[in-house]
Here is the input.
Amino acid sequence: MKNFSTTKLVMAILLFVFGTFVCQAQDNFFEKYEDMDGVTVVSISPEMLQIMCSMKTDEDGLDLAEMEITGMQILSTERKDIRDQMKTDFSKMIDMTDYKEIMRIKDDESNVVFYILQEGDIINKMIMLAEEQDECTIIILSGNFTMQVTMQVAKSMTGTN
Here is the structure.
C-alpha cells in the first residue's frame, strides 16, 4: 500500500511539472515574438475578456458568456523570415504537447487549422493557426469551455456555417 501512495505522489509531481512545461512553452513562444519588429501583438487581459464575454453576438447565435476565457493572445506577421520561424516554432510546440487537431479549412487563399488541449469534456486551450500567402496569424485562447462552444467560435472566426 505504501508503494501505491508513492506512485501516486510521483505521478502527481510529473503531471504538475509537465503541465508547467506546456504552459511555459506557450509563454516562451509568445514572448519570443512579442517584441520583434514586423510582428503585430494583441494580448487581452482577463478583465477585458470578462467585459467581452458579457456581450452576446446575435447574428451568429454565439453567446460568449458561455465561455470562461481567461486569456487571449494573437501574433501576426507578414515578414517571410518571421512567418517561417513562427510556423517552425509552432509545430514544435504542438508536437510536444497533447493538442488535437479539430478542424482544418483550406481554400485558394488560406489554410486555417484549429487545435485544442482538452481535459475530459473541458477544453483548456484552443489555438488557431491561419496561413495566407503573405501572412501568418496565431490565436491562443485559454480558459474552460466545451467542444460545442469551441466549434461555434471556430465557425465565427472563419465565417463558415
Remarks:
- Confidence is low (pLDDT under 50) at residues 1-25.
- The radius of gyration is 17 Å.
- The first helix runs from residue 2 to 34.
- The helical segments are 2-34, 46-53, 80-95, 147-158.
